[in-house]
Amino acid sequence: MAEESITAEALDALAARLDEVEVYLHLGEKRERAAELERQSAQPGFWDDAEHARAVMAELSAARDDVKAVEDARAELADARAALELAGEMGDDPEAAGLVAEAASTAEVLGRSIDQLELTSWFTGEFDHGDAIVTIKPGQGGLEAQDWTFMLFKMYMKYCARHGWKVTVNDCPAAEQIGIDRATFTVEGKDAFGMLRAEAGVHRLVRISPTDAKKRRQTTFAGVEVIPVLPDDIDIEIAPDDIRVDVYHASGPGGQGVNTTDSAVRVTHLPTGIVVTCQNERSQIQNKAACMQILKARLYELELQKREDKLDEIRGPKTEIGFGNQIRSYVLYPYQMVKDLRTGVETGNVDAVLEEGDLDPFIIGYHRWATSEEVS
Model pTM? Predict the structure, then answer.
């Protein structure tokens, strides 16, 4: 929002958006719930059941965060209004321009805050506010697709860092020549699954091939799968006879952090053929536990598919990782542009996206588009 364009009407528009967010977030109910949880936490013996106590405190923290975020936004709006009104009263006073600039700056920050609040208010799925498991796999394009998979992996690492999310890389084996064979990582943070499910689908890269001596243009593909980490109260039973566990030497991209012991674990679920591999941890026990967490999430997803016959509620429809199925294109040659084919959101600053993980315009754009599609 430019300084010279800030008006009372623009602030009114932000206020209207904030009113809608407060309704969507059921803020009145959250205030009451927070008060109730605070009373619970103050009761004698509250910490006798540590698991229940942690769940209560986590819910209390989330409710407080939502209430505080809206209250902070209200305060920013009030500050912007006060600065703009005072500037109007000062007329031609030279200091009035500084107040207008202050109001515009506050409004810009407020707009970004409301973007995030709107996003949270749109997350109504059972797992949207929880953690996520992301898997990236190469598609059409041979060796180039493995390199593209590694580029996407690094992009998502940057994106998660921007949001302050904790990332655990479960599996990221190096390919024989360039790139990686695949990557699976767990993301822990507020709204991680809700945010990242916007990325599920086929991603297309167009560039000059780094491995082609003739420097020809190459199109490659990689697929991104996003599934939720299941809460502890959802238990998926897996019979010991239904799985096969193999151990092997771990490997990693670029020769860094490679574990040379036989600690990497591959778990195969025999009835479904689902295969999960983990090699991040130093012990077989830890890697097997990570594999089982991912396997349970995938089996739960599969059960939902059987019950409702619509897998897209969790990760979008399964499609071939190739031509005609992409959700987003990243073009590096003959021009530079990243464009989401679902929403039309695009940018010419490909470095900001790929090198810095600046994905929020695409992810926010996707959820705004998806919400409007549901309404219509």
Answer: 0.74
The answer to whether residue 5 scores a pLDDT higher than 80 is no
In the block, tokens 């506050």 appear at 106
Structure tokens at 277: 């591999």
DSSP state of 234: -
Rounded to whole angstroms, the Cα distance separating 135 from 152 reads: 11
Give me the helices (H) in the chain, please.
8-24, 27-41, 50-90, 95-122, 143-162, 192-196, 284-308, 350-354, 360-375
Q: Identify how many contiguous H helices and E strands the chain contains and give both numbers.
A: 9, 11
243-248 and 264-269 beta bridge pairing:
antiparallel
CA gap 367, 376 in Å, rounded: 14
Q: What pLDDT digit, counting tens, does each position of 298-350 carry?
A: 998 888 777 665 445 555 555 677 677 899 999 999 999 999 999 999 999 99
Q: What is the mean pLDDT of residues 131-142?
A: 94
- 3-class DSSP assignment, residue 46: helix
- The structure tokens 């060796």 sit at 143
List the one residue out of 21, 6, 2, 8 whose CA is nearest residue 74.
Answer: 21
**Integer Cα distance of 119 and 76 in angstroms:** 19
How far apart, in whole angstroms, are the C-alpha atoms of residue 198 and residue 366?
A: 6
